């Protein structure tokens, strides 16, 4: 008996009890659908984390001013303005693992262009900041040396600021040379940055205006930092192939030396390795995906047990039919193949229906919950292959039992 004839007989047998066949497939349908949906959600989460890592820039650490201790009361990070531009320069000079160390100051204010205005975030930086964040320009240029040293009133803006001030359809070139006021200080736009997207905290990284550090200190912050050249943060990028943990230890030792901190005294700065934080988040997301897929896989096992139970019942009900087939020349191998094909057919039909449910479930979660989902072909093939394997594994015992029936005893079965 060839495979096509065996398949036709198996389908006819399944059509006789449509309701029972449908209920038998239910476990496979739910299992495959759940596996695809869970993997799609998990892959989407991992892709989101990878995008956040790329948006930060590779091999990056952020150093913040530390805390204060007054009268036994400890303040939080940033309560002590302990970082300076000279600290950033010393890090690049003294720590060979560091490629750039970019000092910056951050503030918020109203940006105005013509009749448009927008509350945004502005940073005082130098060009090292763009290198540390791996943030290229799509139009214009970055700051010149004279503008950085002479507190030039020039600005580089992000894509969101471009859209809010110059219109949603504005091109980056449209903003070049225009004058934007920030805190009533006029700035000439000299560059527009490429789009970065959301940060790991969900904030819009493109809603930003960058100005020279000296300009921010003298004109936007009112020279509050005085002659000490205080800065808010230092963005540190290590060289490719260098150990970030080793670089962090050297930076910590250098800063303690520069700030004259005694042994046992708390750091007056904080170093955060953002790449490691996001990579840990990615690992957690990957583990969660595996656990969810494993839980969903239990449904496939339950579906396989259901297939075995129903096939055993089917063998019992069709004992006389089996005996008749053997009496007219069917071999034990033919009977084995017939019932095995029935089991695999149940699994594959359930898997196909489960794929449809998995796609629908993934799209629903993406649309209504706002989560990112990514359905990969490997996940679909894995679910289908697993379902077929379950059909063979759980269908083999009933098929083997049917193939070992003796024709005379089977024909006498009542």
* First-last Cα distance: 27 Å
How many β strands by DSSP? 12
Decide which structural class fits the backbone.
Answer: alpha+beta
- So what's the overall shape? elongated
Tally of DSSP helical segments: 14
Overall pLDDT metric: 83
Beta strand % = 15-25%
Return residue spans where pLDDT drops below 50 for at least 5 consecutive residues. Answer: 68-74
Largest sheet geometry: 6 strands, mixed, barrel
The sequence of SSEs as H and E is: HHEEEHEEHEHEHHEEEHEHEHHHHH
Order of the strands making up the biggest sheet? 4-5-10-7-9-8
State Rg: 34 Å
**What oligomeric state do these chains adopt?**
single chain
Total separate domains: 2
What is the share of helical residues? 55-70%
Give structural notes.
- By secondary structure, this protein is α+β, with helices and mostly antiparallel strands.
- It has two domains: 3-52 and 279-412, no CATH class; 81-267, no CATH class.
- Helix content is 56%, strand content 18%.
- It has 14 helices and twelve strands.
- It has helices spanning 3-16, 18-56, 85-94, 128-133, 145-149, 159-166, 172-175, 213-220, 244-258, 274-317, 319-327, 332-369, 377-403, 407-412, and strands at 60-65, 69-70, 73-74, 98-113, 116-125, 137-140, 154-157, 179-182, 185-193, 208-212, 233-238, 269-273.
- The strands form two sheets. Strands 4-5-10-7-9-8 form a six-stranded mixed barrel. Strands 2-3 form a two-stranded antiparallel sheet.
- A hairpin with a 2-residue loop joins β2 and β3.
- α1 (3-16) packs across α12 and α2 (18-56) packs antiparallel against α13.
């Amino acid at each position: 008996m060839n495979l096509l004839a065996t398949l036709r007989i198996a389908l006819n047998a399944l059509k006789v009890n449509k309701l029972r066949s449908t209920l038998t497939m239910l476990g496979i349908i739910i299992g495959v659908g759940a596996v695809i949906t869970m993997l799609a959600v998990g892959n989407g989460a991992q892709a989101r984390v990878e995008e956040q890592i790329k948006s930060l820039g590779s091999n990056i650490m952020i150093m913040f001013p530390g805390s204060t201790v007054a009268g036994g009361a400890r303040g939080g990070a940033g309560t002590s303005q302990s970082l300076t531009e000279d600290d950033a320069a010393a890090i690049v000079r003294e720590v060979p693992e560091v490629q750039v160390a970019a000092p910056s100051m951050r503030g918020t204010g109203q940006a105005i262009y013509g009749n448009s205005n927008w509350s945004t975030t502005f940073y005082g930086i130098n060009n090292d900041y763009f290198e540390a964040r791996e943030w290229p320009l799509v139009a214009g240029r970055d700051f010149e040396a004279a503008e950085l040293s002479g507190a030039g009133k020039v600005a580089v803006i992000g894509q969101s600021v471009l859209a809010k001030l110059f219109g949603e359809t504005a091109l980056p070139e449209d903003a070049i040379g225009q004058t934007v006021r920030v805190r009533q200080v006029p700035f000439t736009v000299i560059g527009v940055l490429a789009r970065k997207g959301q940060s790991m905290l969900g904030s819009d990284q493109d809603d930003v205006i960058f100005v020279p550090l000296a300009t921010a200190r003298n004109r936007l912050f009112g020279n509050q930092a005085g002659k000490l050249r205080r800065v808010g943060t230092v963005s540190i990028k290590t060289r490719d192939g260098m150990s970030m943990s080793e670089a962090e230890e050297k930076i910590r030792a250098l800063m303690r030396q520069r700030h004259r901190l005694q042994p046992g005294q708390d750091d007056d700065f904080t170093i955060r390795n953002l790449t490691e934080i996001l990579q840990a988040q990615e690992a957690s997301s990957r583990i969660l995906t595996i656990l969810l897929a494993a839980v969903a896989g239990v449904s496939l096992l339950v579906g396989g047990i259901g297939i075995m139970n129903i096939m055993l019942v089917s063998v019992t009900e069709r004992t006389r039919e089996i005996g008749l087939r053997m009496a007219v020349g069917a071999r034990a191998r033919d009977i084995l193949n017939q019932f095995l094909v029935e089991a695999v057919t149940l699994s594959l039909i359930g898997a196909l229906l489960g794929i449809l449910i998995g796609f629908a479930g993934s799209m629903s979660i993406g649309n209504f919950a706002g989560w990112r989902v990514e359905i990969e072909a490997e996940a679909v093939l894995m679910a289908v292959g697993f379902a077929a394997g379950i059909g063979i594994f759980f269908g083999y015992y009933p098929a083997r039992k049917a193939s070992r029936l003796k024709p005379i005893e089977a024909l006498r079965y009542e």
